[in-house]
């Protein structure tokens, strides 16, 4: 069975930047700008900061937001960059079987608050928000926008959705169901989700501080990250391969709806599966982009597992630059991980001040050079899902 | 690719819960008075204490999951290598709106964490995993009418890769007043009876239910209903160009939507053998899971169950006794299609 899949395109839009290179560059400079949401207001005081994508990051060729959820708009921006990167024309791509697999949370939720407020007051709300929802299932919308004729799947595995989408797309390619596959995640900031995380008391009123001693929780973010994966037989001679998907693993805690297993049972199983598929050992990993949400439980469990399974291997959380982008996180973080491998340096884990001395492993707080060819992007999710991908930098295989 | 066996079924709908209830309804011995799920049978598997904080959507899933595992002879066994794939068209709508109720009634700062956590689309899969001890890979999908074919396609991949020994696949959608309102606004006053073969006129009645199945490549013992021979999804084209088994009968996902019905007529050539069963389970995005289940039962018995008689004017033939060893289940969506092919064992 084919194990290692070439990655021929990358795309990213997030609060750190409108594309892959600018996002990585701003992270390497240590820039971050969490602030109260501009797109909606809430009663929370103090206001909870978020990582919002500036409107001018979105390109002009998108369907209007009146017709299309912002989640799908974000997905289209990242998908367009990934497709451009592969060096094929759209006409060429449309002759191939190109699958689209996108993870999301908000992009699949029928939760328009104003519509529902009017409905429960006995009014007759207009159907615009429902029309928009029905037209905006992310994978189908991206496939339609670019006229891509492969399989489509929209995954809703909460915060591991983007990572799982990459794993699912890899399964398609191995099974011969498509020639290329766009895979990743997309999510928008949403008042309903914002209130939800606030209700769980895991949203911080300060900029997120993954693995810090007095971490107060996460900041929500938005964006999209996409990889264009290919079947090895479809990659043309001379085509630039930006990296390789070496392994994917996932497993479930079956422990608690909102808390990770205290010993990281599912995460350990997922790591074992990914390492086996990648045919590599922990010591082959150059660095790990951890889930690192800045919530007390997540960071405690993740630190424990990383300390035991990847002792001495540097790790970071990139959520300090992007916020927690939920269904998009796995896509954005896989893109940033691979871009870091290819750039030869990894942005520092920002916000870990002072570090939590009780954690058995702590992230790298300075930008550092990459020594090795493989890296992990890891996602832990609501509901106990644990997923990770093992990526190899371009040109090494 | 590998064609796993369907070794357990767990249908839950207005007709009742379990294979026996569905068979009775198909045989015409009982007819659902409404497309609403009665969750009382869940108490046979889980006590109320275990489910008291679990929303209705997830409880439908738990009931379907327990029934399917029991039917496959896997209840109480080691489920550590049983993957879980859960598909839904819309997700847990009632819970989503209950959360919005808490925001609108009590304010942003007093929103309900319980409703929020249950409203997350993979909460049902998480509840099933926690209650039944499923620790293998778990995936939730949500893509309207394509959700079922997409989930079954993934199940085949997982089994082909030997990531798991078995897949518990489930599909759930629930009704709620907002869906009823949307139907009224889009289609006018609801009719009383869903008529699958009335393709040009809106007769859809919203339904709800859950439909689960166990898929295995190497079942150690017990019976199997059919093989999952094919599962394909496309997001943009009007319908599949070829199924590879054109002479096989079709179970069509016609569920009374006038916007979709004529496309079935345009796709399938005259003389095709067809059946449609939405009259038993109602109009819901994951209705194709019921079609697959009914087709599997038909393949096991050598004949598709009778359905509403075909009216004059349709150039198709009613499917009945199976001359073919295969059945195609086709669901058309607003854009795209999902095709599931079954083969007799």
UniProtKB/TrEMBL annotation, chain A:
Domain Ketosynthase family 3 (KS3): 1-393
GO biological process per UniProt: fatty acid biosynthetic process
One annotated Gene Ontology cellular component of this protein: cytosol
PROSITE patterns per the UniProt record, alphabetical: KS3_1 (PS00606), KS3_2 (PS52004)
Pfam family, one: ketoacyl-synt
Alphabetized GO MF terms: 3-oxoacyl-[acyl-carrier-protein] synthase activity
Keywords: Transferase
UniProt similarity note: Belongs to the thiolase-like superfamily. Beta-ketoacyl-ACP synthases family.
Protein name, as recorded: Beta-ketoacyl-[acyl-carrier-protein] synthase family protein
Species name: Geothermobacter hydrogeniphilus
From TrEMBL, chain B:
GO molecular function, one term: acyltransferase activity
Organism domain of life: Bacteria
Pfam families, sorted: Ketoacyl-synt_2 (PF13723)
Start and end residues of each Beta-ketoacyl synthase-like N-terminal domain: 80-178
UniProt protein name: Beta-ketoacyl synthase
């Amino acid at each position: 069975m084919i194990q290692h899949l070439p990655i021929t395109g990358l795309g990213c839009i997030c609060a750190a930047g409108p594309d892959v290179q600018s996002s990585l560059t701003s992270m390497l400079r240590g820039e971050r700008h969490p602030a109260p949401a501009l797109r909606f207001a809430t009663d929370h005081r103090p206001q909870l900061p978020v990582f919002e994508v500036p409107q001018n990051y979105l390109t002009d060729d998108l369907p209007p937001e009146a017709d299309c959820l912002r989640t799908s708009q974000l997905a289209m921006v990242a998908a367009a960059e990934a497709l451009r990167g592969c060096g094929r024309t759209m006409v060429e791509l449309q002759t191939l079987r190109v699958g689209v697999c996108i993870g999301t949370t908000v992009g699949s939720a029928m939760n328009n608050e104003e519509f529902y407020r009017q409905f429960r007051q006995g009014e007759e709300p207009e159907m615009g928000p429902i029309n928009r929802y029905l037209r905006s299932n992310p994978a189908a919308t991206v496939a339609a926008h670019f006229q891509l004729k492969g399989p489509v799947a929209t995954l809703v595995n909460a915060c591991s959705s983007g990572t799982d989408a990459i794993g699912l797309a890899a399964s398609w390619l191995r099974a011969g169901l498509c020639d290329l596959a766009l895979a990743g995640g997309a999510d928008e900031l949403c008042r309903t989700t914002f209130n939800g995380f606030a209700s769980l008391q895991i949203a911080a009123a300060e900029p997120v501080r993954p693995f810090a001693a007095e971490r107060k929780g996460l900041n929500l973010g938005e964006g999209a990250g996409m990889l264009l994966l290919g079947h090895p037989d479809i990659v043309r001679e001379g085509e630039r391969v930006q990296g390789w998907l070496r392994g994917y693993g996932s497993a479930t805690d079956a422990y608690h709806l909102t808390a990770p297993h205290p010993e990281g049972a599912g995460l350990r199983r997922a790591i074992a599966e990914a390492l086996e598929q990648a045919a590599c050992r922990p010591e082959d990993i150059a660095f790990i982009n951890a889930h690192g949400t800045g919530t007390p439980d997540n960071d405690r469990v993740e630190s424990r597992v990383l300390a035991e399974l990847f002792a001495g291997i540097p790790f970071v959380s990139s959520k300090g630059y992007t916020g927690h982008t939920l269904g998009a996180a796995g896509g954005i973080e896989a893109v940033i991980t691979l871009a870091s491998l290819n750039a030869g340096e990894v942005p520092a884990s920002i916000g870990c001040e002072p570090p939590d001395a009780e954690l058995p492993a702590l992230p790298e707080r300075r930008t550092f050079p990459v020594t090795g060819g493989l890296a992990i992007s890891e996602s832990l999710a609501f509901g106990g899902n644990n997923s990770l991908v093992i990526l190899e930098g371009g040109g090494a295989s | 690719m590998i064609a796993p066996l369907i070794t357990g079924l767990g249908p839950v709908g207005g007709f009742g819960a379990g294979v026996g209830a569905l068979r009775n309804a198909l045989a015409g011995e009982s007819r659902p008075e409404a497309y609403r799920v009665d969750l009382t049978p869940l108490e046979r598997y889980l006590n109320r204490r275990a489910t008291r904080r679990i929303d209705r959507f997830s409880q439908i899933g738990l009931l379907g999951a327990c029934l399917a595992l029991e039917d496959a002879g896997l209840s109480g066994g080691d489920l550590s290598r049983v993957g879980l794939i859960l598909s839904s068209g819309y997700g847990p709508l009632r819970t989503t709106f209950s959360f919005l109720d808490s925001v609108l009634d009590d304010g942003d700062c007093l929103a309900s964490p319980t409703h929020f956590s249950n409203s997350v689309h993979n909460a049902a899969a998480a509840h099933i995993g926690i209650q039944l001890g499923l620790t293998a890979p778990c995936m939730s999908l949500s893509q309207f009418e394509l959700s079922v074919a997409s989930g079954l396609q993934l199940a085949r991949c997982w089994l082909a890769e030997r990531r798991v020994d078995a897949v518990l696949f489930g599909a759930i959608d629930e009704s709620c007043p907002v869906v009823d309102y949307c139907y009224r606004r889009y289609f006018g006053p609801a009719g009383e009876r869903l008529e699958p073969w009335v393709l040009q006129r809106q007769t859809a009645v919203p339904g709800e239910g859950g439909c689960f199945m166990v898929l295995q490549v190497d079942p150690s013992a017990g019976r199997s209903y059919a093989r999952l021979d094919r599962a394909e999804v496309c997001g943009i084209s009007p319908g599949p160009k070829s199924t590879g088994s054109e002479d096989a009968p079709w179970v069509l996902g016609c569920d009374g939507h006038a916007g979709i019905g004529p496309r079935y007529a345009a796709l399938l050539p005259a003389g095709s053998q067809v059946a449609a069963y939405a009259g038993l389970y109602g109009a819901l995005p994951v209705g194709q899971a019921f079609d697959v289940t009914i087709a599997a039962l038909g393949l096991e018995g050598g004949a598709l169950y009778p359905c509403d008689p075909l009216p004059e004017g349709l150039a198709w033939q009613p499917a009945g006794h199976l001359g073919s060893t295969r059945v195609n289940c086709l669901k058309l969506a607003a854009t795209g299609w999902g095709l599931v092919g079954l083969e007799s064992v």
